[in-house]
Amino acid sequence: MGPDDLAAELREDDPESLDPVQQALLKPEKIDFDYLYPHLKDADRDTLLAVTKRAISTGQFLPIWFLKTYLEVDGAACVRTLLQGGRVSEAGEACVRVLRAELLRLTPHPPAPRAAPLALADRVLRELAHVRHAGEVYEDLQKLVEEYTQVVKRTSEDMKLSMNYYVAT
Prior knowledge:
Layout (H helix, E strand, L loop, with lengths): L2 H11 L6 H7 L6 H8 L4 H13 L6 H21 L3 H19 L11 H11 L6 H34 L1
């Protein structure tokens, strides 16, 4: 008998030593999701599976925060459990969430905008305007600032369009 087996046997003898989720699963009453929220929001997939099966068997409502947590931990298992428990409409909604999340992971995202020294470039342009022999450098820098600004605007618009498309579908 190893230390894990001994600890499990001792917990069986003393139900008070179990964590609140395990205690709730042993009781015949319905699960109090509000009370268990701090313990369930970071629970592992086996705990979430046990709580879901118990809630389904007692005909209990599953809060949206609980379903979101389970979907984040193991979306496919959540959908299967809901489907096997006869909660077809909830399984359908969960499946839509899982597929949308996977679609967002598949789409290439444009690189995150990075801070460019535009304020510094503006200052340099103002200073170069007063220098006689800086015409070519001034023009190159000004064109580059305009080009950079256009790329940022285009990237921003593309990001907005892609987010609106995937949120709307």
